[in-house]
Write a structure and sequence with these properties.
The structure is a single chain. The protein has about 270 residues and is α/β, with parallel strands linked by helices. Helix content is about 30%, strand content about 25%. It is built from seven helices and nine strands, in the order αββββαββαβαβαβαα.
Length: about 270
């Protein structure tokens, strides 16, 4: 089965469950951030396990549901948990969920993630609004996976993260009482955290924060013509910057601390974007 056929099958199943609800804005929640979703009216929850052809999330802190609903007149869909390359999924299969969102009608994508910071001004609890990225995964979900139905094979990335959306996000962060700044995301494969030497190298390359996701989703979304806003929450400083070991438990613990602030931020963004 081609990926286009897979996406059509998934979209048809979802449309049947939601009675053809057409979401305008999609949100992907990062590790430990699933509890930050503002209350939605007319909510419909669909487990990933029930959607034909959808991948399954295996990482703690990623619930594995699509949640549809309305927030102050805006049609929203939330991916409560994402899929990672390090889970063993083929890279090209990471395109399925984003292409399905496009087929459902999504025009704007908010990608959130927990990250390690290499900038001393952005410490745990701060928000890095992404202005660009570096793909250090040495792979791409679009390689050998082209279908004209999803956009051109060759496309521009001079503004991978929408400038207007970034401006709105920085203003919203101020209103929500969130320490925020702009920066560059570096995507590594994981699942191990980076070494101190790698962190120093990434800093020299111009990276601000580092994580193990985001970039595959953004590449697929931009090819499809979906505008993207990247919201990277700092859960730890990069390895070697502070003299303490890193763990996924720490990531979850730190992101839980900012759930309230993230919820306030989303309440503004869902209306203003």
């Amino acid at each position: 089965m081609t990926q286009l056929a897979q996406v059509k099958k998934a979209a048809a199943y979802i449309n049947k469950k939601t009675k053809n609800f057409k979401p305008e804005i999609a949100l992907i929640t990062g590790s430990g951030l699933a509890g930050s979703i503002p209350p939605l009216e007319k909510e419909v929850k669909i487990p990933y396990t029930s959607i034909p052809g959808f991948l399954q999330s295996t990482v703690p802190g990623h619930s594995g549901n699509l949640i549809f609903g309305v927030y102050k007149g805006r049609n929203i869909v939330v991916m409560q948990g994402r899929f990672h390359y390090y889970e063993g999924h083929p890279m090209k299969d990471l395109a399925i969920s984003i292409r399905t969102l496009k087929m459902l009608g999504v025009e704007k994508l908010l990608v959130s993630a927990a990250v390690g910071s290499m900038d001393l001004k952005l410490k745990p609890g701060a928000l890095c609004v992404l202005k660009d990225h570096i793909n250090f995964m040495c792979n791409n979900p679009l390689i050998g996976n082209h279908d004209p139905a999803f956009g051109p094979m060759f496309f521009d990335l001079s503004e991978a993260y929408d400038k207007g959306m970034r401006k709105v996000a920085l203003s919203a962060a101020k209103k929500a009482g969130v320490t925020a700044g702009e920066g560059v995301y570096l995507a590594a494969t994981g699942p191990n955290f980076e070494t101190p030497a790698e962190i120093q190298m990434f800093k020299k390359w111009g990276a601000t924060v580092v994580g193990m996701s985001v970039v595959p989703e953004v590449l697929v979304a931009r090819q499809c013509g979906i505008s993207v806003l990247g919201l990277a929450w700092v859960s730890n400083m990069g390895c070697g910057i502070e003299k303490k070991p890193l763990s996924h438990a720490q990531t979850i613990s730190e992101t839980k601390k900012i759930e309230g602030k993230f919820k306030k931020l989303l309440e503004i963004l869902f209306v203003k974007l």
